[in-house]
Structure formats: structure tokens, C-alpha cells
Amino acid sequence: MTYKVLISDPLSEDGIKPLTQAENIEIVMQTDLTPEELEEKIVDFDALLVRSGTQVTRSVISKAKNLKIIGRAGVGVDNIDLDAATEHGVIVVNAPNGNTNSAAEHTMAMIMAISRNIPQAYHALKNHKWDRKKYVGVELRDKTLGVVGLGRIGAEVATRAKGQRMNVVAYDPFLTPEKAEKMGIGYGTFEEVISQADFITVHTPLLKETRHMVNAKAFQLMKNGVYIVNCARGGIIDEDALYDAIVSGKVAGAALDVFEEEPFVDHKLLELPEVVATPHLGASTIEAQEIVAVDVSHDVLRYLTGDTVKNPVNLPSVAKDVMTVIEPYFQLSEKLGAFLIDLVGEVAEEINLSYSGDLYDIEVAPLTRNTVKGILKRHLGSSVNDVNALYLAERKGITVNENKTSKTQGFTNLITVEVKTKTQTRTVSGTLLNGLGSRIVKVDNYSVDVTPKGHMVVIQHNDQPGVIGRMGSLLADHGINIATMQVDRSDIGGDAIMMVTIDRHLDDEALDALKGLDVIKEVVAIDL
Ligand SMILES: NC(=O)c1ccc[n+]([C@@H]2O[C@H](COP(=O)([O-])OP(=O)(O)OC[C@H]3O[C@@H](n4cnc5c(N)ncnc54)[C@H](O)[C@@H]3O)[C@@H](O)[C@H]2O)c1
Ligand SMILES: O=C(O)CC[C@@H](O)C(=O)O
To answer: What is the CATH code of the structural domain delimited by 315-452?
Structure first.
């Protein structure tokens, strides 16, 4: 099978080598598509690789019939409609680490540029004006830098600013006093930080909570003559409020790499001499572009070839050591879900998962998603995958609960899935036998030992002589060979279960014939 990958923003050619050198990957690089052209083009592509230039809208995603993965060569995914991607089962991956250094260096360059008026003085000189008086700057030494958002880039900026002998004070909801102390910086609330700072630099993502967090009210709290830097995302700073604050003299200068609307050719902020700007160049270095393209290409390749991705955005990422432990359970968990939903034969209203033994202490969310996928597939087919399984369950009003229990029932690991429907509650438990693969070990209260694979018949009957024989003869009459059989009962003469694996699908005729046997209460054909 050949996978088609569309690259719609300029990406480092060396960086995409993992894809260009891979087998079965056809790459189309077209970086001048209009939004309408992208919608037309994307239809049969399996993967889309972008930087910040391409707007991957809901409309683009819904036109993409084969799309499996969107790779963002960079950090910010605000140009991708993540909800739409999740709903359509499209995984989004990014390259969160590759441009951290470049973005931090660019931020420092911008701080230096505004503190010493370098671009303005350069521009004047280019225009034959030798003006030393006009471009007197301020030192960074002993000034306070307020860092809003102390993630990867914010932290790198803080470290570099200390190198410039600045005092650093930061606000980030995840910043602990211990971390601040370890970094040798101060911390405070957003209001405390911006009111102490001589320079303020923002490094948050653009979110509902961060949109316009630096607004007219925030400017009022700042020192007179403060400098503002934004190398994160346009929209974190309210541009109208910034304009007013510069014109009023509250803000002495601003350095902006990012804007609310990009790209643009005219912007009122650029008419102000106090504003220094670059056209979203924070990540634009040869080094960063190569690393982000390599990282995202590897992840796209991994996903298309059935491997686990390293930097998923719309799926929680799983630590490598956790993944090593849970990976062998993936097949079991999906099969348990598929088995159980076939057994109940109607839609689930509630799914309860319980993990024990070796699975007790580790993160099992990926297994839960996988089991739910196995359950939903019965009614939703291949449109459900690990990305959208929980979303689709929620949208269908299905409650999913996950718990851990210390009751291993004698197994070193055990996954129990319970499905509640309008009319019944049924359970199945499975284990991974060391070296022997997956086993279903319990169906409702019956103990069994069946490999969850191939064609099966699950029969509920009364424990009485002759049932097994009649069932065997009937299958033989329909030319169906029995591969394995397991029987268990509640007590002598009580309710019993038979789990029969057969060599081909149980057709309707044989199924009806089995249902016709008076000793049989329920027959379900299951194909895993
Ligand atoms: N200019 C560029 O070319 C360029 C390059 C790379 C990254 N970026 C942008 O820089 C920003 C930071 O990137 P990063 O890799 O450091 O991300 P990150 O996820 O490592 O850090 C973001 C930090 O912001 C914090 N945060 C979230 N909400 C906040 C709030 N309301 N107040 C304060 N802090 C908050 C988070 O806790 C996190 O620590 C992103 O917007 C990213 O898109 C821009
Ligand atoms: O693609 C770019 O150059 C911008 C990247 C940057 O904004 C990011 O969020 O990673």
C-alpha cells in the first residue's frame, strides 16, 4: 500500500528525508495552495504536513476522505481545528522541542533590539541620518524581566535573561516555588509579575484563557515605560490596547514576531516608531527547521506504518516505559471489547473497565480507548479509532468508567470489561499469558480459556446430558468443523456456557438450526 503525503508549507528538505527515503510513501509538496485549492487537493491524501502557514480548517478535514494524520512541524497547533481532527479520527502530531532554542534566541534578540533601538537606528542610518541622540537605549542589567508562560521557551528565555544579569520573575499556573527557586527566579501572579517588570515577554499558547490576557486593564497595572515582547502567538496581546498604550507613552517599546492576523502587509502597530517587528521568524533557523521536519516526518511515518507516535496532540502521549508494558495488551483489550459487544448484540449505554495485577500501577488510558474502539466498531465501523473512540462514546451518550482493582483472581494481569445495555449487563475478562498470548478467561460468571481470535459460537444452555453431542452433530451437518471447545456451568444441572471455536463463520442457516435446539437458550456467533 502506498500512502500519499501532502506538504503544504515550506519544510526543510533534509528534514523530510525520513519520508522521502521511506518505501511506499508518495510525497506531493505544494506550498502555494489557496484554501479552496487545499480542500480540493486533500481529498485522497493520507497525511498532511504543515507549518503555521496552512489553515487546517474543519472544512479541509471533512473533505479529506483518507486523512489519517496531520503533522505540524513546530509547536503551535492553533492553525489546525483539533476538534474537527479528533471527530474525524485524524491524529495530530507536532514537533514541540525542535524550535525551542531558536524561539528563545529570537526573543532575546528582540529584547536587545528594542532596548537599544537597533532596528530604528539602522533604518535611520540606511536613510542617511546619523542620529545618536534619538536612539539612546536602556541597559538590561538589573532590569526585571516578567515571563508569562514558563514552558519550554519561557524557561529558556529566563535562563538567557539571567545571563544578561536581569532579574527574572515568572507567572505560569504550573510554576511551583521549588521550581522557581531551582531556576533562581521569582514568581507571582500574573498581576504581580506584570506590575514589577521593566520588560514583559509572553510565552503561552493561544488559548481561550490567554487570548487578550495582556489587555487595557493589564497595561494599567504595568510600570510606565515598560517594554513588551511577543514571540509566542498573536492574540495573547490585545493589539488595539497595545497601540493605545504605546501612543499614551505607557509602553516605551514593543517587539513583535507574531500578530493577530497573519500574514499582512499593512499593520497600524508598524506605523509606530516604538515597534520592532519580524514576520513570525521565531522558528526560522536552519537548525530548527531541520529538527522539526525530522521529528514530524518520523511521527507521520510511524503512524502510517502502525507504530506509536511520539508527539500526539489530540491523544495523551504515553511515556515510553509505560508503552513498553501496555503494548502487548492492545490486541487483547480491543478483542475483549469486540467480543462483548457481539455477545450483547445491542448498543452499550455504559462501559466499565477494570484492570488488575501487572496493570494496577500503570497508566491504562490507551487500553481503555482501545477497548472502547473495539466496542464502537460494531456499529460505527472503521470510522472509529483510538483518536476519536472516547469522543464518539461521549457523543453517543455512552458512559466510560475505568478503575483498578487488586483482585487478580489468580491471574498476573486481568482486564475485565462490563457492558450495560438497556436490557442486560454482561462481562468478559481476559489475560495475557506469559509467552502464550491473549486468553478470554471469564464470560459473565463462567470460567473459560479461549484465544480471542477467529470464529466462535457462544452458547448458553442447561447443563444436561446430550447437549454437547447435539450441538456437535448439528455443526457437522452444516459442514462446520469444531477447533476447540470450553464448557462451564453454575452448578450440576444449572445454567451452562459453551464456547466453541470453529473453522469458518457460523452462517445464518446453522445459527437458526442451533437456536432451534430446545436445550439451547442463547446462541451468538462472534467473529474476531
Ligand atoms: N514565534 C515562533 O516562531 C514560535 C516558535 C515556537 C513556539 N512559538 C509559540 O511559543 C509559545 C510557547 O511555546 P512552548 O514550546 O514554550 O510551549 P509550552 O507548552 O512548553 O509552554 C507554554 C506554557 O504556557 C503556560 N500557560 C498556559 N496557560 C497560561 C496562562 N493562562 N498564564 C500563564 N502561563 C500559561 C503553560 O503552563 C506552559 O508552561 C506557543 O504559543 C508556541 O506556539 C512561537
Ligand atoms: O512554522 C513556523 O515557522 C512557526 C512555528 C512556531 O510558530 C511554532 O509554534 O512552532
So the answer is: 3.30.1330.90
Alpha-carbon gap, residue 498 to 440, rounded angstroms: 13
Mean pLDDT, rounded, for 264-270: 95
pTM of the model: 0.82
- List, in sequence order, the alpha helices (H) in 21-151: 35-41, 58-63, 82-87, 100-115, 118-126
Where helices occur in 116-222 by DSSP H, the ranges are 118-126, 152-163, 177-183, 190-196, 216-221
Per-residue pLDDT band for 173 (boundaries 50, 70, 90) equals: confident
Q: What is the mean pLDDT of residues 105-116?
A: 98
**Fold category of 100-277 in CATH:** Rossmann fold (3.40.50)
Q: Which atom of ligand 1 is nearest to the CA of 210?
A: 31
How confident is the model over 341-354, as pLDDT tens digits? 999 998 899 999 99
pLDDT digits (tens, 9 = 90+) for 12-30: 999 999 999 999 999 999 9
Query: CATH 3.40.50.720 residue ranges in the chain?
Result: 3-97+287-304, 100-277
| CATH superfamily assigned to domain 454-528 | ACT domain (3.30.70.260)
Fold category of 3-97+287-304 in CATH: Rossmann fold (3.40.50)
pLDDT of residue 143: 98
> Taking phi first (over 0 means left), then psi (-120 to 50 degrees means alpha), and beta for anything else, what does residue 243 get?
alpha
Pick the residue whose CA is nearest to atom 5 on ligand 2: 74
74 C-alpha to center of ligand 2: Å? Answer: 5
CB-defined site of ligand 1, < 6 Å: 74-76, 96, 99-100, 103, 148-154, 171-174, 203-207, 209-210, 231-233, 257-258, 280, 282-283
Contact 167, 144 (CB under 8 A): yes
ipTM of model: 0.99
